[in-house]
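lol ok so funny story. i was supposed to be doing the assay writeup but got distracted and ended up predicting the structure for this chain instead. priorities right. anyway since i did it might as well share w the group, maybe its usefull for someone
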Amino acid sequence: MEFTSKIIEQAVDAFAKLPGVGKKTSLRYVLSVIKGDEQQAKALSDIILKLKTDLRFCKKCFNICESEFCEICLNPSRNETIICVVQDYRDVLAIENTGLYKGHYHVLGGLINPIEGIGPSQLNIESLVNKISTNNVSEVILALNTTMEGETTSFFVFRKLAPYSVKLTAIARGIAVGDEIEYTDEVTLGRSIANRVPFDSLLKK
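and the output, tada:
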């Protein structure tokens, strides 16, 4: 793709670095910014910068938030004895949208993936173990993707938490093997959480 402007070329290249954005889609974004007024462009620039300067990870569950602790962890009506383990912020949103889960979360920040060089030490797994060992947690729900990486991570977490007297469950398999939590419809996801099963029962199949 040849450009008549270096600035447009650089902007297209910048947008195209985003996941799932090709050069043609990126060019549409750039042209939309050009057609808009200067105030719109400045607002877009400011909010993008805030994503890097004003956001942080919750000190308790590693959810993305604007303060030291996220709103879920600070909500006294949530059941802090139940922890749902998820991959990232997208899964927290997906589960929250079902309106059926009232416990806390623990965001791992990814999945074990040796091909991409992601090992257990790069995820928030040890902090989960510490949380279980020092807090009054009755149940840990493993709500990770049913992909190979998700299954590997679930099993690793299961092994790490096995020595502790905590109930380990997994979301029911209403979610097809290979599916990702964030793309599952709310009804199916809600039922999968409500009908969760002991994790070790899945190992016997």
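Strands lie at 56-57, 64-65, 79-86, 103-107, 139-142, 167-170, 197-198. The first helix runs from residue 6 to 16.
back to the writeup now i swear
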